[in-house]
Design brief:
The structure holds 2 protein chains of 2 kinds. Chain A starts with a helix and ends with a helix. Chain A is mainly α. Chain A has helices at residues 2-12, 17-36, 48-71, 77-87, 91-112, 114-124, 128-155, 159-180, 184-214. In chain A, α2 (17-36) runs antiparallel to α3, α5 crosses α7 (128-155) and α5 runs antiparallel to α9. Chain A has one domain. The radius of gyration of chain A is 18 Å and the shape is elongated. Chain B is α+β, with helices and mostly antiparallel strands. Chain B has 3 domains: 1-193, Sandwich (Immunoglobulin-like), CATH 2.60.40; 200-209 and 269-451, no CATH class; 215-262. The longest helix of chain B is centred in the middle third of the chain and has 22 residues, at 215-236. Residues 1-24 and 444-451 of chain B have low confidence and may be disordered. Classes of the chains: A mainly alpha, B alpha+beta. The interface between A and B is large, with 33 and 40 residues.
Chain lengths: 215, 451
């Protein structure tokens, strides 16, 4: 399983999707900090840091599904079936490895935006500990993206459909949560929960999914 | 008027002889407020505090609360000793009493409630300093009578008064600080009586506005973006070497985080920037200083910025009317601020700065620069033979002849720096802006030197 996860991460380096996405996240977040310091007045009393974090959530929600699909090997269900035969892994483990690889790629993109968050944290004079907590919560979004993009790649016919499908899933989960609670920590926790549930569901359905495509 | 006189005597009696509040057993607090127990809304009110410390050395603060205003004055009181401190508080939200507390390590040691009488604008305040209440003079009785020792040591302490009268023998009992304060107040009062206090040339407020992005933020943002671009370039050229690609990205993120954290703490832009518009009005041998300023902080952290060479206050323009003074009485702006935060402040008070000496001979007015600094863009008002006097070097003079009616009788110059200096323990304070100093020119009939 470790080999399959590493394969995902190695394949990601063969496209410029990860650094491109990192530059987009970093560039937009930094531009927001520079242009709007000490914060958008209409969003007061949110601090500049909270505003930047919100911007980063929106940008990542758009960028991560594209990055995950673009940088992953386009292994549809039949290809995963072949991989399980070659590596003697169970279908569930193979799918889990793909999810973990995609999760790692998403984490790299999230970390690329970290300097912008620290820039906002320094401008708003909020504790550094809060940045670490918010990074953990963003990992929830990464898990949700990893599951949705892996599921989409398994099912969709091409990359474009897989990206659109993954984006629809991510926004379909996030928008109701965002409408219900404006708090980023709630958004992160619910995304994590949705991602974990999706991982369990996809891994348990992997065998039937692969079998149906093999037929 | 008789009622006011009685009230004044009662108030003076109340504030001069309150029983000291028992504290924790080691310190005793006494306080008096107002000019003879009287105060006006929006004017500085003197508060005299005495602390008897019998047991151990005390590090703490004296806190004065009056309406929405709160003044914190740091104190270091050795034991055994008696320490007397004079401070000033002003608020529009005046109450009939103010609270004075002695606090150490966050715990109150003792506290006292002082009654104070608020005067309406139309009520006169005539303060008499002497052993006994004075008889009516010029038909106006004393509103309050105080001992000469109780008179304030700063011009600010007298601004609520319409008149201050010294009984025979009282002048000799005044300290140098009290005499200086009274002399300045008389010059201030003269301007006030002629309605000229608000007519002196003022520095344009636009000078106090800080615009643009602060340099440390630009340096940090530029470094982080450049590092990521470099990592992206490495990434695209590391096919077959995935570790190199991820290491480059990790390095770029670390560099960006370090730049975002340390920018402004040292290197370019590691300074507090103060942009100001300062109006300085010479009164007697001192000056009234009114500074509107914006502070820009270079890095995230706690700051304590001291205003030096000023007997006055330093207040944030928005938020609570809370001011802090250090153990020497210097106003402090303290708080936790982020990098690039813009903090609008008002600095008001009195400075020992009087650059001009004005002499009049017949219809010629001569202004001499007796300060150590060159003054520029000097101007006589309309009604003089010269209006643009140009630069006035230290020790030099400029003169002009009166040729017509003088509507606003002020001679003014631009100063190279304000009379107030600022300091902070970790960062230098860079001061930029406009400071205009002015002096009232005497009428044609007056031939004298104005100190």
């Amino acid at each position: 399983m470790r080999l399959l996860t590493a394969r995902e991460l190695v394949v990601a380096t063969r496209t410029p999707a990860v650094p491109f996405a990192g530059l987009v996240v970093m560039g937009l977040s930094t531009a927001f900090v520079v242009a709007w310091a000490p914060g958008v007045p209409m969003l007061a009393p949110m601090s500049l840091y909270d505003q930047t974090l919100a911007v980063q959530w929106v940008v990542l929600a758009v960028v991560l599904p594209w990055t995950a699909v673009r940088s992953s090997p386009m292994d549809r269900a039949d290809a995963v079936g072949l991989l399980t035969a070659l590596t003697r892994l169970s279908p569930g483990s193979a799918v889990l490895a793909k999810i973990l690889g995609s999760f790692g790629v998403s984490i790299v993109v999230i970390l690329a935006g970290l300097p912008a968050l620290v820039l906002a944290q320094q401008a708003a004079a909020v504790p550094m500990f809060g940045v670490l907590v918010d990074l953990l919560l963003l990992a929830g979004l990464a898990l949700l993206v990893a599951v949705s993009s892996t599921a989409s790649i398994l099912i969709a016919r091409d990359g474009l459909r897989a990206w659109l499908s993954a984006s629809v899933i991510v926004f379909g989960v996030m928008l109701p949560i965002a409408a219900w609670t404006r708090h980023v920590s709630s958004l992160g926790l619910f995304s994590s929960a949705a991602g974990a549930a999706g991982t369990l569901g996809l891994c348990s359905m992997a065998r039937s999914l692969i079998s149906s495509h093999a037929d | 008027m008789f009622t006011i006189l009685i009230a004044g005597i009662l108030a003076a009696g109340l504030v001069q002889g309150p029983a000291p509040t028992p504290g924790s057993g080691t310190s005793r607090l006494r306080a008096e407020a107002g000019l003879g127990g009287f105060a006006r809304a929006g004017r500085w009110t003197p508060v005299r505090v005495e602390v008897d410390n019998a047991d151990h050395d005390l590090d703490g603060e004296i806190v004065v609360e009056w309406g929405d205003a709160r003044v914190h004055r740091a104190v270091n009181i050795p034991a055994p000793s008696r320490t007397a401190i004079e401070l000033y508080v002003r608020t529009g939200d005046v109450r009939g009493s103010m609270t004075v507390r002695l606090v150490s390590n966050g715990a109150p040691l003792s506290s006292v409630e002082i009654p104070i009488r608020i005067l309406a604008d139309e009520e006169r305040l005539v303060v008499c300093a002497g052993a006994e209440p004075s008889a009516a003079e010029n038909g106006l009785p004393c509103t309050a009578t105080v001992t000469p020792e109780a008179l304030p040591r700063s011009l600010r302490g007298y601004v609520a008064a319409d008149d201050v009268r010294l009984q025979p023998g009282a002048e000799a009992r005044l300290t140098v600080a009290q005499r200086t304060a009274l002399q300045r107040w008389r010059a201030y009062r003269e301007l006030d009586a002629e309605g000229l206090l608000t007519q002196a040339p003022r520095a344009p407020l636009a000078g106090a506005v800080a615009t643009g992005v602060d340099r440390p933020t630009l340096v940090a943002a530029g470094t982080a973006v450049a590092a990521l671009l470099w990592a992206a370039w490495i990434w695209t050229r590391s096919r077959g070497a995935p570790l190199r690609a991820y290491a480059a990205l990790a390095g770029a993120v670390m560099l960006g985080v370090v730049a975002a954290t340390v920018a402004g703490r040292f290197g370019p832009g590691a300074e507090i920037r103060l942009r100001h518009a300062t109006t300085v009005q010479q009164v007697g041998d001192g000056s009234l200083v009114a500074m509107r300023a914006t502070l820009g902080y270079p890095a995230s952290g706690a700051y304590a910025i001291r205003a030096l060479r000023l007997d006055g206050e330093l207040m944030p323009r928005a938020g609570a009317a809370e001011q802090w003074l250090d153990a020497d009485g210097a106003p402090i702006r303290r708080g936790v601020f982020g990098r690039g935060a813009r903090d609008q402040i008002d600095v008001d008070g009195v400075a020992d700065y009087a650059p001009f000496q004005v002499t009049v001979e017949n219809d010629i007015v001569r202004v001499h620069n007796r300060s150590d600094l060159p003054l520029t863009d000097c101007e006589f008002p309309e009604g003089f033979s010269e209006t643009h006097a140009g630069q006035l070097a230290p020790g030099s003079s400029v003169s002009a002849r009166t040729v017509g009616a003088i509507a606003v009788p002020f001679f003014s110059c631009v100063m190279p720096e304000p009379p107030v200096a600022f300091s902070e323990a970790r960062f230098p304070v860079r001061v930029e802006g406009t400071a205009i100093v002015s002096v009232k020119l005497p009428g044609q009939s007056r031939i004298s030197a104005i100190e």
